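Worked example 2:
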Amino acid sequence: MREPVGVDRPDRSAVRIGALVPLTRPGWAEAGRHLLAGLELAVRDANEAGGIAGRSLELVVRDTAADPQRAAAAVDALDRLGVAALAGEYHSVVARAAAARADALGVPFLCSSAVLDALTEHPTDWVARLAPPQSRGWQLYADFLLGSGHGRIAVAAQPSAYWASGTGILREYVTARGGSVVELDMTALTPLAVCEKLVENEATVLLLLVGHPDPAVSIVQAVRRDQRLADILIGAPAGQPELSDWKALLGSEGAAIPFLRYLPEQLTPLGTRVEEALVERLAQAPSFVAFEGYDTVTVLADMLRTHGSDRRQIAAAWPRVAVEGTRGLIQFSRTPGISVWQWGGTPIQIADRDPAHLDRFRILRTS
């Protein structure tokens, strides 16, 4: 008899990791594809190295589609399947919902990409994170803007806890140093109206705190084509210009737009080998999100080999992790103001696409 579509038939002898990934809209599906490529490649490598004490490692994937409720339901489903731990997620608000549910159920969750400082409402031992807290990355970004002479900042923002948090970080940092931040409400403004507001406020930089591709692409096109705004800097701290669909949709208009990404100046030897494998898997250069996915499974596989698949033992082991990943040595600690176990050494770059060579990135600042 043919199996019903969508029914899980996992290998009962395998050690399972649940993967939360945005693979369909309104999620940023290209970011999800890169995240999944990294997760899957690390599972393959772990199994080729002998698995987990002779047992195979299996990834059980759930599409979150950037929906917090769907992510929470996926955590429930993966819990019932008996996964040893959870991995992944790109969207911060979705990861927050998943982290809350994982904490409530007692399922270890290593979050790959989400950056919201307040990933959980209270301190928890069940959740750890590879990406840096938003406050760290966005303060570096604000310092870069001020150092480049941009003290009059406009942000085109949509309603979201993530965008609101980012706006607050920017405003606090910039205003304390003599600059200004004006918020443009994208529920009330068209891209052409944004241009008028930029002229009115004499802004020197516009930051895109909006969804991709809409309305981010339309805003960039409107600003680039307005001669009054020829000297304005467009920025996208959330990283939209990193992925190939940005280049495909905007071409040269999408160049010279600084963004945050979490890569070192030089990958580790493991990272160099993984990069080659990811290029083959993705048929394009991997984004930092793919490396985050690979590092997530690499850490969890090491923990499973060392501490077994008991969830409590895994959650208790975060402070003892010392794993060489693609971007450096990964260790977790408690960071003031952060409620989850945090990798404190996450590398940060500010980069943009080179107008002369759109496939090449220029590194503008590192930390």
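Residues 268 and 328 are 6 Å apart (CA to CA). The two ends are 57 Å apart (CA to CA).
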